[in-house]
């Protein structure tokens, strides 16, 4: 009885509760978004919205296409790619030039003739121009060449390598297009230093030894490199490393006739040549020996500065015979003149050799 009474009492409340639940439950509609979400076409409502919507970009929320990256980013990316490709192209051109050049083991006669020609040219200029103007001009030329050497491996300046190869061609060496300075900087610096440090005649004779002793000693050294006893290798404390005694003697003898001619027709004055013919011959030979010995003393490969000094990057300077030879020969000339009692201010012939 109690159970029946409870059912009769609770039945209306159960029916009322079910009706309320049914009225407040949303109808069950088909859910096509679920199928599209599974196929990648629509983001389901329970996942995180795309970053564009979270950042305020409503194009995705409205069903539009994704917004493209800002134009500035695209331009910067394109500019970076173009600059990188440009730098790589310049480096490839420089490497291509280096592949065409010969290394220092090749005789390279064109380089030797160019070397001698420039030396004679500068020696004549030192005689023709006023001393101050010549020194100033060589200082400007040396500074400009140093600036070129510091810039020509940097991005945007590698066209300088093309210009160097156009004007000098095979006179360049392979290592001079592989990160090293060309010999021209040391050549100009040596000429400028010789003209500045010594009287005009001594400076001119020092430049002449640079023009003749350096290339001739190199040539004879290459020709006699198979003669074992002549090679210095690593002896003498590294001085003259990989050079030869026969090359040194060949360079000195090659300079002798030119030196003799220059001193023979110099302006000695009415008193004549102090010491006579013997003094002329001795001085000519000693000058050649001085220039050739300076070339011999510079080791091969050259002594190069470290890449960093106290943590600071430095240019690849090295000890170069183009700088050493004219200074040593000019200094030796002043001592030779003093030994034979010749005046340091003695003038050479108007055209040096005639």
From TrEMBL:
<keyword id="KW-0732">Signal</keyword>
<protein>
    <recommendedName>
        <fullName>Phosphatidate cytidylyltransferase</fullName>
    </recommendedName>
</protein>
<dbReference type="InterPro" id="IPR037997">
    <property type="entry name" value="Dgk1-like"/>
</dbReference>
<feature type="signal peptide">
    <location>
        <begin position="1"/>
        <end position="23"/>
    </location>
</feature>
<feature type="compositionally biased region" description="Low complexity">
    <location>
        <begin position="75"/>
        <end position="87"/>
    </location>
</feature>
<feature type="region of interest" description="Disordered">
    <location>
        <begin position="57"/>
        <end position="94"/>
    </location>
</feature>
